[in-house]
């Protein structure tokens, strides 16, 4: 968080704010104050950890490699589904997404997978197209 | 107030509105009943489906989800000992023992009636309090507003997680994210990273769905992978006829407990950040202390269920008091509701009573209708909800992920919003794992534009001279309260660290999967 704060203040905010003329407060002001606040409290967090190292040592590891690996796999499946929706449309991409996640979660019965993969898409398609009158990918 | 109520009555008395509320309550009930899903997730997912609705129907629909979710959480708590939401943890203490004793239907009825009583009482309080408070809030200037916002974020941060520092960092991170887009004063693009889609700011639904819904379901996939995705059997049809019914006399005996629970829910609900979980804990404790037979609590005491459920549901309308009066959300669901107001072109807060008083009162009337519909849906749908909660996660979770994608797509920005949502799923996952508060983050994000505007105005008006604060006693009061809450709660956390003891109640965490199984 401290690194995030420093990089926001010195790199990202200056680089990502368009230069221009203004009166009053600069557009840098607000994000810089917020980033500075994050940095100050991150130092507080570090100080807390330094003062009570035993408490933190006794805590369970918040994120194991196995959990993170699982998160990455699921996110990759969802990402593949999003790409499929983007390229092939909501019917093919949506069905692929739902079916892929069901298979990953251990569902193997086609009689459950096929209706589950198609029914929500049909409902969403009808609602979005005919009620919301909004386009779908 | 009564003039506005009369005008609003004609707007609210429409089949179209009642239908939307009923659908909202029904969806909320199902989502609340399903373990691991919560009403905030449902609201985030369903906001895009309200875009073509009128603001009144949209807000009433979402409030219906909120109310239904609070009541529905009791179903799985009672039937499976798995609370649908953290606020229903207390309901498991006596609800599940009642189920084991063959009184599941009686427990469900008590939970439903208590929810409706709490809901109606708190809605009446909301109607009575919101406008007078809004009248006071209108008189406040940017100094006072800035001080209130600083206090709100500090207080929510202090109370809504295990670490005060992490809470504040979450809030500041939310405030920082809201800075993306065109600068309000100069019109210059800021933190847009070259994307035109970000000129209007980071889309609310990409943030909300990514951090709340998608990251949560991914965590649940992980949990299920290690355990299993199915849910335990029920005891719905066991027991004698007397065990299934709730007589008028039994209801009358429970009414004082329900009213006490409602009072606790209202007081806790109004304060930002405290949330329904704390209110149900406190109401339960009060009911136990007031009981002549406290030893029955934890072994199937109907008062335990009544106290917890009335407090839980009372906190829903009560949490809307600061939203309508000051424009200040104190929980995930109210932050999302406030976002929904904004997406429908309304600015919640004191000025809404001036610009759209009849709309506000129509929403209030819609909330009363929602309470009645809640009773009907709860009674008629008991069997349905009992079956829905046994549905396997392998069916529910993939569908939710698909809805996450569609929800992020619909807000605007098309697939850009979807990719952004995936990015925020990462943010949400790490926040969840490292215990950063979602409530503070989302409250910060929603309040970001208002905070920046009032801070800028305050600095310009005061000419950046802190001594001018002395002319604003209300601002001083809220700043002192902010410092006090920061000191009080951070020292509590330090004590917790020193003693190695965890706080028993983790109030603001309506965002997490319930721990008690």
Summarize this structure briefly.
The complex is a heterodimer of chains A (137) and B (517). By secondary structure, chain A is an all-alpha fold.
What does this structure look like?
The complex is a heterodimer of chains A (137) and B (517). Chain A has 137 residues and is an all-alpha fold. Chain A has 6 helices and no strands. Chain A has helices spanning 2-15, 29-51, 53-58, 65-88, 90-104, 110-131. In chain A, 26% of the residues are buried. With 517 residues, chain B is an all-alpha fold. Chain B has one domain (2-499). Chain B contains 22 helices and 2 strands. Chain B has a two-stranded antiparallel sheet with strand order 1-2. The longest helix of chain B has 35 residues, at 104-138. Chain B starts with a helix and ends in an 18-residue tail after the last helix. Residues 500-517 of chain B have low confidence and may be disordered. Chains A and B meet through helix 1, helix 2, helix 4, helix 5 and helix 6 of A and helix 8, strand 2, helix 9, helix 19 and helix 20 of B.
What does the secondary structure layout of this molecule look like, with pairings?
The complex is a heterodimer of chains A (about 140) and B (about 525).
Chain A: H1 2-15, H2 29-51, H3 53-58, H4 65-88, H5 90-104, H6 110-131
Helix pairs in contact in A: 1-2, 4-5, 5-6
Chain B: H1 2-12, H2 15-33, H3 39-46, H4 55-80, H5 89-100, H6 104-138, H7 142-159, H8 164-177, E1 181-182, E2 189-190, H9 204-226, H10 241-244, H11 248-270, H12 275-290, H13 302-318, H14 320-325, H15 332-343, H16 352-355, H17 357-380, H18 382-388, H19 393-410, H20 415-433, H21 438-461, H22 473-499
Antiparallel strand pairs in B: 1-2
Helix pairs in contact in B: 1-17, 2-4, 2-17, 3-4, 3-9, 3-15, 4-5, 4-6, 4-13, 4-15, 4-17, 5-6, 5-13, 6-11, 6-13, 6-17, 7-8, 7-21, 7-22, 8-21, 9-19, 9-20, 9-21, 11-12, 11-13, 12-13, 15-21, 19-20
